[in-house]
Amino acid sequence: MSNAIANLNLDFSTSPTVWKFLNDKSFVRGLMGPVGSGKSYACAAEIMIKAVNQVQSPRDGIKYSRFVVVRNSYPELRTTTIKTWQELFPENIWGAFRWSPPLTHHIKLPARDNAPGIDCEVIFLALDQPKDVRKLLSMELTGAWVNEARELPKAVIDGLTHRVGRYPTKADGGSTNRFIIMDTNPMDDDHWWYRLAEKEKMKGKFAWKFFKQPGAVEEVIQDELPENPEANGFVYSANKWWMQNPTAENQKNLTAGYYEQTLLGKNIDWIRCYAQGKYTYVQEGKPVMSEYDDTLMTEEFLEPDIQYPVQVGVDFGLTPAAIFGQKLPNGQWRILHELVTFDMGLERFGYMLKGELETRFPKYDVLVWGDPAGQKRDEIFEVTAFDHLRTIGLVARPTATNDFRVRREAGAAPMNRLIQGKPGLLVDKRCKRLRKALSGGYHFKRVQISGGERFKDQPNKNEHSHVGDAFMYLLLGGGEHKRLTRGGNKNFTASVASADFDIFAW
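Above: the chain sequence. Below: its structure as tokens.
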């Protein structure tokens, strides 16, 4: 075996959960734990373990394998996932990394000392563009690693299940290991991971298996504190005292005081999620709709008024979403219903949207608003998103613009109004995904700089961005932009944005 393999430390025996995860034979495996617990490192190592264990090709004796590593966006892929990969497999030892798309580390180790050679191709792919999804669903793979799985829809994992085990071909021995591994920090209790891991556990030979690492810290009650807690390693944060969990994994690879320093300045939800490893919702970054107050702007069982049309905002992205609402004459908006998907393309979504309107609002006039980018003609089908909706009986109109600043202000406008003692926006409490998006799920990511706090200009693309955009298109189409462009912004002109995505990708 080569020196690279010989010098690679793949001993996870001191991390019991990781050890069980790596030795498990389940087709789909998930590993959840706090930050610093070695999840990503273990998954990266698993790829090489599987490459080493691949059967030799009868043609030339080489062990061939091909893997894909998936993340939600290219910035995250480059700064986090690939960084972890290169810590374990640096270029100066394992060969050059290709930084042009598709990002690839093609590891070729020659036969040596009676050990067969290895040809391991590792492709790094972000799924923030529909073209990348199409690329993924056409790959011939040995296995796959989904990094930070909570940020991706379950449809991605479902798509991978029939792409792995296809490489190498039978001529080169066939795939020895057909697998999908996932790692993640905790998420909230309405996520698909929580549902499958905790509520609807699979059974049978090919059931997915989920592993949960111990928390990194434990809460300590006041009565159990020593006389000088800080001198004894206890940390005070979010109005509580904390100590390191003695059963926490990967401690030997962390710097002294790692968790003590990490906890300082964090709120309780952050600590519950990232340090204790518990299921919870954590607001990341800066909310796009900072004006939204879920306590004040929600009501139980809002009912539509037959006097006014039902308006629908639609986002045509990777995971189509629709928000249903009414605008009253006094300027108040009432959000009545949501339709959020994670595993269908526009065609299926269009029929589902039509069904929702016919079932929930059968006697109402309907106005449908969508992203102007949906006017782009599909290269294969030669129709636009609006054309497609029209063919199934839904007349949809593009909004005046998809300029993000205008959309955001249109969405925020009714939140800043008080009408007859009530907020200018009321959301039905059953619209859980929209409420979560408005509460901070739809956010600007924090930029790491010294000397202050800054955020990106464009919102983070995640599971909340589609429903957030649909909400904006609803209010924009419903006329809120007119308030913004009247008077002070006389130079405003409606624009149709170009887009490099195929609305029929899924």
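The chain has three domains: 3-212, 217-275, 298-485.
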